[in-house]
Amino acid sequence: QVQLVESGGGLVQAGGSLRLSCAASGRTFSNYALGWFRQAPGKEREFIAAVASIGWTGGSTYYTASVKGRFTISRDNANNMLYLQMNSLKPEDTAVYYCAARFANSWSNKESDFGSWGQGTQVTVSS
Length: 127
What we know:
Number of helices: 0
Low-confidence stretches: none
Order of helices and strands: EEEEEEEEEEE
Shape: globular
Strand content: over 45%
Largest sheet: 7 strands, mixed
Distance between the termini: 39 Å
Mean pLDDT: 94
Structural class: mainly beta
């Protein structure tokens, strides 16, 4: 299992941008598919974006419809980092954001497929 630590959350006005980072420990980071999830107050945790391992279709990505075109997931295997660039933020993007890892090549949008989770970072978008 890898250990994950998120950073980069904060308060931003609607229309602004933030970049979340997720630092991972472990020598086999490149073999993991990775994902971002979020949980808004009073709601269940939901899938945001995922990226496959580089060995799987060159690290293909997948996004939930509500963030497609605004958010970009990327990974830096050399430095064991995962990123989520968030642009055109909306108040409804306010949530705690979690990075997650699964020891598999293909991406997934199912929470149960991920075995490692970070502690979360708060993102608040003001109107």
